[in-house]
Amino acid sequence: MKSSSRHLRSVISTVGLTTTIALTLTACGPSSTSSTTPNAGTSTGSLVVGITTDPDTLFPWKATQFQAVNIAQNLYGTLTEFDRDLNVVPGLAQSWDTSADGKTITFHLRTGATFASGAPFDSAAVKYSLDTINDQATAAVARSSLASVTAITATDAHTVTLTLSAPDAALPANLASINMAILPPGATEQSISTKPDGTGAFTLSDRKPSQSITLAANPTHWSGAPKLTRVEYRIIPDESSIVSAMQSGNVQFAVLNDPLVAKTARSDKISVSKTPQLSYHALQLNASRGVLSDVNVRLAIQCAIDRQQVIDTAALSEGTVTGPITSPAYLSDPKARPCPTRDLTKAADYLAKAGKSAGVTVNTIVSQGEYATSVNEAQNLKAQLADAKITLNLEVLDSDAYVKSWVAADFDAAVALNGGRPDPDGMYGRYFTSTGNLNKVAGYSSPALDALFAQGKSTTDPAVRKDIYTKVSAELENNAAWIWMFTSYSYTATTSGVRGFIPMANGSLQYLWLTTN
Amino acid sequence: MRRTLTSLGTVCGVAVFVFVMLRALPGNQIIAGFGTEAAALTPAQRTALEAYYGLDKPLIVQFFTWIGGVVTGNLGYSASANHSVLELTAHSLPVTLELALISIVIAFLIGVPLGMFSASKPDSIRDATGQVIGLAGLSIPSFLLATALLSWLSSSLGFNPNGAGYATLTENPELNLKQMLLPALVLGFGIAAPIMRTTRTAVLDVRSLDFVRTARAKGVPPRRLQFVHVLGNALLPIITMTGLQFGYLLGGAVVVEQIFSLPGIGRQVLIGIQHKEYAVVQSTVLVIAVLFVIVNLVTDLLYRMIDPRVRAE
User: Fold this and answer.
1) Which three-class secondary structure state does DSSP give residue B57?
2) Residue of B nearest to A418 (CA)
3) What residue spans define the domains of chain A?
4) What is the mean pLDDT of residues B286-301?
5) ipTM of model over 0.85
6) Which of B81, B150, B258 shows the shortest C-beta gap to A244?
7) Helix, strand, or coil here: A219?
8) Are residues B127 and B21 in the same domain?
9) pTM confidence score
């Protein structure tokens, strides 16, 4: 929701993902692994990527916009990274060890890596970066990811030790977020915005505001030179115009959000592949307000909605019904909810239990234009809920007004597209724990959820965690904290010469360096 | 002198209006930059950001800081583009001026002959044809025409010079003119309609005047009568309408600039609004307002050149 899908996606991209492998690495002793990304050899060819808007910053610690995050991922490096399956793998840290009590993680840094300026990458850069991110004055987006870190010590030039207040299973994955990019000592927002200085596969070559950003291959990148010598992000504000530019051969690559544009883009010149996303469409309910504070009213809403109908009417059938957790490793079973299919009788029963048989009215905010399907979803929900005597008063707002209301939790309900993460703790811990920094917006927490999230964070056994988060999912669904509807796709459009791109479920373009044209 | 003071008042009014309106809009640069992640900011982080963006100062201080900068040539700074607004405007203004100029020429070349064509035989099929074309220009939304044209030419002919990245007139004149062609046609077609209607009305009015009848009686050739005597005396309202449309194009071509990826001044304002960069929006709107005033002054000067009666006054 930041409103738009691009911000939602950026949220996905900016957060850590934890997988079974990550957990194993965190839990068990030395977790040395070699990068799964092969050396790409020499660079040849160039690629023009169509994007709809200029990145709003090149400073990685504050990047949340989709375009900004994806460009930053190619300019900067992180201690850990995600592979194509979203497993956590070594990045600038070649390996890491976790102490037996889980309260100390020692990162062994890669030698020979350098910043774009030529300065060497070392432990001083890591300590400076993590300390500065942790400083409130920096206003870094990912500061809360370091909440468990009590000390950062540069043990030697190529070793950094993090001391934690409690085991944090999600930390290695959180460090893979581009919002945790390692910058050289002394780097500031001003200096980096003017001249990005990262350890990424590309360096900034040219920038024309509102027109283009051009990156050049970094031949000395620690994992090898990118296959492309040059990547130009060309700003074409309208997705249909991007498709037109691809048809005429001026642009070779784009990520499309609008399913309608993606459908019409397919031709003999353009291939479109779709990738299921971790982000999810939901009707957020604010259980701290009005009639929605009654669980029976919330359950009535849950029972009165046919999710497939929402997908069919609002999203051109492009989506899959989902429960709360969208991560493949912890996937919620949408059939496990109190009303797996639409049941108006049950909805009426719940309303009767709430003493609201005559019906209820729920004021609902909707973002206009931030993602393609928002208003259509809202209208379909309104029509379906009307059959159960539940009136949705839709307040369609421009994106800024929507975000302002959302941030202030000034709504009864909100039609939302939220970013997802493979790790359920990262995905929902900040929403549904009583101390979470987004709990005010989530509008719901309970002692049971607090306990379950605490267990999940401190436990590294994948099977145990799976069981814990199944209970979390059940707790959320049985109390209809929100109404989870469906997950959608991102659409990667390429012209015929483009090969080797790896689309990811978090919307990242981090493997652009393996692409050829 | 009075005219200069009126113009100055207009520009000041625009400055205050745009400043107030921007603050009245929901959200700010923090919301625009962080999106929903703004909900996760701690109070200390929010305070730091407000200080960084200058949002912690009283509105009156913000206003006079901005106006003071403008007066001294500092239009402000765009953090997202990492350039001063002056630099951004120096790049975007020529794009819009070129587009507006070509569009207005196209509109003039379509609108004036069409208006004369319609007026040559009122209430005839000829007149109706001209009126229908004019109505089409007014009725068809520019975004629809632009999208359809771009989509059709790209898919069927592979012609889309605007997808190649903007080239300035000095960098690549051929590509630049190709990139201006489609948006100027779309804008020109839309603007031709009011010019056509104004021309038709003005020509009909002038044709009914005594001096035209006299000229005709004296044996002035029809073509000379039409172009010199009639059109020459009907030019004032046509020039007025053209000037107004030119002024409109300076800030009103944003949709077409978006669709054809032209980095013009309208798009600069739009991006400023999206990023809630107050200095970008305020200063750019002020530049547009100043230009509008100048265009109006130039139009007035043209009156004096065209009509001896105005000079005499």
Assistant:
1) coil
2) B36
3) 2-199+497-514, 279-487
4) 88
5) no
6) B150
7) coil
8) no
9) 0.81
